[in-house]
Amino acid sequence: MSGGFAGTTEQFGLTGNLRVLVREGNLATFFISVFNSDSAKKPRSLDDFTTGVIDTDGHLTINKLTAGSLVDTPNSGLKVSGAFSSGGSKLSLIFNSLPSMVADGYQGEGTLEAELVGLVSASKTPSR
User: Fold this and answer.
1) % of the chain at pLDDT higher than 90
2) Which residue has the higher pLDDT, 8 or 64?
3) Strand-pair category, 90-97 with 106-107
4) H/E element holding 111?
5) How many beta carbons lie within 10 A of that of residue 91, not counting itself?
6) Rounded to the nearest 5 degrees, what angle is found at the Cα of 121, between the Cα atoms of 87 and 113?
7) How far apart are CA 66 and CA 79, in angstroms?
8) pTM
9) Largest distance between two CA atoms of the chain
10) Domain-located, residue 102
11) Could you tell me if residue 124 is inside a domain?
12) Where in the sequence is the domain holding 26, given as residue range(s)?
């Protein structure tokens, strides 16, 4: 994260969850809940639901996502791009700030690698 009138810069790692709620056709809906675990640094987090579009090559695009407190204000939010692995068990995401309309706004960028575990499928109840 960088920006502001004084040109500050801060780097931090994140921990948390990324849940794929629904993946149907070319859409995927996620719940993202990440935070920095370093108590010596300013608390930062992102908790949001979002839906992205998956193209025919398997690349994912989320055009607008809130930045939560990962990026100081003012900021214009985030754009996310990424892809599911060929087996669909891993997800790689790249986060970039959307262009700011404020000269001293803040920008952020980062990557997230997630391994999908505990996939749940709907089961049908047999009819009697």
Assistant:
1) 52
2) 64
3) unpaired
4) strand 109-115
5) 19
6) 40
7) 9
8) 0.82
9) 70
10) yes
11) no
12) 2-7+14-115
Residue type, 7: G
Q: Is residue 28 part of a domain?
A: yes
User: What are residue 107's DSSP bridge partners?
Assistant: 2
Contact 48, 32 (CB under 8 A): yes
Locate 124 and state its tokens. 């049908």
Nearest one of 94, 88, 87 to 113, comparing CA atoms:
94
Q: What confidence score (pLDDT) does residue 123 get?
A: 46
Structural domains in the chain (count): 1
List the one residue out of 52, 45, 51, 50 whose CA is nearest residue 16.
Answer: 45
Q: Which pLDDT does position 1 carry in this prediction?
A: 66
Query: CA–CA separation, 19 vs 127, rounded Å?
Result: 31
112 contacts 90 by C-beta, under 8 angstroms: no
Give yes or no for residue 45 having a pLDDT over 60: yes
Q: Mind listing the pLDDT tens digit for each residue in 64-114?
A: 999 999 999 999 999 999 998 877 788 999 999 999 888 888 899 999 998
Which residues is 92 bridged to in the sheet? 83, 113
Question: Based on the number of CB atoms within 10 Å of its own CB, is 83 exposed (0-12), middle (13-18) or buried (19 or more)?
Answer: middle
